[in-house]
Amino acid sequence: MPAINPENTIFVALSFEGPDVYSQAGGLGVRMTELCRGLAEWGFETHLFFIGDPKKPEEEKHFNNKLILHRWCQWISKHHPNGVYQGEDGKINDYRNSIPHHLVENIIYPAALSNKRVVILAEEWHTTSTVIKLHHYLKAVGLRDFVIIFWNANNTYGFWNVEWESLKKACTITTVSRYMKHIMWKYDINAMAIPNGIPRRFLEPLDRRWVDYLRHIFHNKYFLVKFGRYTPDKRWVMAVESIWKLKSMGEDSCLVMRGGMEPHRAEVMRAAKFLGLRVKELESNEVGGRSFEEIAGALEKYRDYDIIEMKFFVPDEFRNLMFASADAVLANSGHEPFGIVGLEVMATGGLPLVGTTGEDYAQAFQNSITVESDDPGEVASYLKYLQENPGMIRKIRQQAQHTAQMYTWDRVLEDLLGKLEYIGRAFGVIG
User: Fold this and answer.
1) Which domain, by its residues, includes 222?
2) Whole-angstrom Cα distance, residue 192 to residue 419?
3) Is 80 exceeded by the pLDDT of residue 135?
4) CA-to-CA distance for 73 and 231, rounded, in angstroms?
5) Do the domain assignments include residue 431?
6) Residues 85 and 213 occupy one common structural domain
7) CATH of the domain at 15
8) Are 172 and 111 in the same domain?
């Protein structure tokens, strides 16, 4: 069979998270949405099976019917309205027991009759038992040679639930960074590293008037931004302590942040209170329809606070404007499998301050600032250093955008397809 192309290959993505708000708890939903969108835009028939909103259609088609969304386990989700991972065990069982048969009967067998191959892209630990069962089912019905199966690890969470020996026999294992690849060596797995990506549209120019307006609001202080889930890995307490450290150095600053509903938030707020920092919890009813003018107006009103917590959904457009206008975006994780936020900041021409784990793209004082410790003084010192070297700030922002261009989804898909070619030839799926 010839090389992979839209005429001879069908993609199937298996993931708990997906494009629905119901289906997003972290970055995986965005990854799967953009990955499948990219494949469909390239002309590949692409199916995404995910735990979808129970109130939405069971199936939807997009991009000239090339992208087919399959909302799975809806009969369970309607009893669990609080999101994709509520009722997790029941969803895992239903997914494992129903997906393999459905794929074989409705996608893989028809593809084989048309002399097409199917590529399975499964994500995270929730799908591992499904991958193993699918592998055995395909062998039993004589269709295994028509299918390439990749399973990808975005994080280490849930690794204790994985039957590693069975998984290794069932598929090719991938991950998102060299850092994760090294971690997986502990499990006797030499995973292929295929990075995450960002949509090319993130590189489109922003309205400079709005960027300048946000900078003007915080013109005489450090304007810092942090987005992420409230988990210790994200080093939220370190970020808060950095504000206090700047104050102790005689520097005024404001951290505008957006977290989630995780329990770690309480610890972050206790740290801020202990340090005597003034915190404004900016509620949704204070920003009206969440237009630029309404959100920016609220930030201007409360600019004298040390920390402003945005307790509402922030539109991507406004988030990107903050990334571009801030003196730095604190993506200072202590454990980050890849670090997609850092790349999103780079795409806007922002200045990311990142950790040194999975952020393979980061080069210290070239396209970003990297922190080597959990010392808030390191963050404060770097910010002071940059303030005294404005030429370096301009260089970092420029190089950051150049770096982001190398990690758009179209570039990542070239990497993915190249590795699929290798695996397909190694296992005889491609002649």
Assistant:
1) 201-405
2) 8
3) yes
4) 28
5) no
6) no
7) 3.40.50.2000
8) yes
Orientation of helix 340-347 relative to helix 390-405, angle to 10°: 110
| Pair type for strands 67-72 and 59-62 | antiparallel
- Under 8 Å between Cβ of 225 and 323: yes
Amino acid (1-letter code) at residue 26? G
- Which tens digit of pLDDT belongs to each residue from 319-356? 999 999 999 999 999 999 999 999 999 999 999 999 99
Structure tokens at 216: 């003007």
CA distances from 200 to 57, 230, 243, 320 (A): 29, 28, 33, 14
Inside any domain, residue 382: yes
Over residues 1-17, the pLDDT tens digits come to: 558 999 999 999 999 99
One-letter identity of residue 428? G
Q: What is the pTM of this model?
A: 0.90
Q: Are strands 222-227 and 253-258 parallel, antiparallel or unpaired?
A: parallel
H/E stretch holding 138: helix 128-140
Encoded tokens for 377: 């003084």
- Long-range CB contact pairs, 39-45, < 8 A, 24+: 39/11, 39/67, 39/413, 40/66, 40/67, 41/66, 42/6, 42/410, 42/413, 43/6, 44/6, 44/9, 44/10, 44/11, 45/6, 45/10, 45/11
